[in-house]
Amino acid sequence: MSKTREDLTITEALRDPLIAMVLRADGVKIDDFKRLLETAAKKREQRPSPVSKFMNVISNNPAAMCSFC
């Protein structure tokens, strides 16, 4: 997965004034939001990428390889 600069880091999201306003309006504490972001990031890191899944299938099944590769 490639990371683009359009994505905010957790630190940037926690410092963003617009996000802070929305959190205040919704009654969400910054520490709770930080834990939510960190938990989501950890779960995302644990998922295998579609490319790695595909590579595992090909490496374990020679019949799945392209005939023209």
Structure description:
- This protein has 69 residues and is mainly alpha-helical.
- The chain has one domain.
- It has 4 helices and no strands.
- The longest helix is centred in the middle third of the chain and has 17 residues.
What's the gist of this structure?
By secondary structure, the protein is mainly α. The chain has helices spanning 10-15, 17-26, 30-46, 50-60.
Total DSSP E strands: 0
**How helix-rich are the residues, as a percent range?**
55-70%
Termini, distance in Å? 23 Å
Radius of gyration: 19 Å
Major β-sheet annotation: none
> Treating each run of at least 4 consecutive H or I residues as one helix, how many helices?
4
Can you tell me the overall shape? elongated
Count of separate structural domains = 1
Average residue pLDDT: 82
| Class by SSE composition | mainly alpha
* Low-confidence blocks of residues: none
Order of helices and strands: HHHH
Percent of residues in beta strands = under 5%
